[in-house]
Fold:
Amino acid sequence: MDIRGIDHIELYVGDTRESAAYFGNAVGLWPRGQGGPETGLTGQRSLLLRHADIRLLLTSGLTADHPAATYVRRHGDGIAVVALAVADAAGAYAELLARGAVAELPPTTITSADAEVVIAEVAGFADVRHRLVERRRGGGDFLPGLVELPPVAASAKNLLAEIDHLAVCVPPGQLAETVRGYREVFGFDEIFHEYVEVDGQAMNSTVVQSRSGRVTLVLLEPDTRRRAGQIDAFLAQHSGAGVQHLGLRTDDIIGAIGALRQRGVRFARTPAAYYDDLETRVGQIDGSVAQLREFGVLVDRDHDGQLLQIFTESMHVRRTLFLELIERRGARTFGSGNIRALYEAKERELAVAAAARGLAATQEVTG
Structure:
């Protein structure tokens, strides 16, 4: 099956304009298409945002029974569709059904004056679907029912490049089944697996990837034999499996962080102690450790090179979906070494703070 990459990601949201303000004004993905009942999108309003090769489609349901409205009531704002670029949507759809995929939408051809696209949909995991997109001719931003908008001047400089991966949380006991589905139905390869344990919390992580190498899912499952952690929290707040974060690749993580911070994006704080033994853990750094400390960038290494990464705080009221910025300097993995390092650095920071408080209290008593 020829899965060429991610065509776009569709988020179901409560308010498209509110979400577009964050992704546009803060992250830098600008409107390139819009649609609603007046353009043939029954019961919904959608905005297509783009930055370099990243396309996000934001959709809000206008009626209580619209799938987007149902999704948001259950999960809050989140990723509902991962659209896959294929050479032959009808052929891929038939092949997927023959392998056991659940049909959602049969192949449909939509034409306009300057474009023709074929789409079909099958179930992915939980309430997330995969849309197969075959672009026969015309605009790269074309989607059914969307009217193209002119480019925004502010998007001239692309600090982000493409979607690197999606991290997916699944309930306990469902990881093996989910991995098997992507291997046997979608033809993905299992490229990485590890068990991560930190301070009584633990999770299994398996990475599956399309044969093209352009679609990567990091699948995460909590270990219920250990203390509940962040994966358990996501599953509870999201009401089930879903996309925890969207990894966006950049060729200049320092520049991207600086720009997004100026626009109001908040990033998860990295303890200062994380950098105290950074080069001992990962080897010589390609760049300034002081600069990495200033911007809160995490560093990891695998056999192929280094990885720089940082996570945003969630922009949603349920504290579920968030973003990751990632710069790959040869590395092919996903920074799991940072989980333990961050925890240990935070513990050292707390210990120092506690000691300082104790010293201050002693001085106050003796003074």
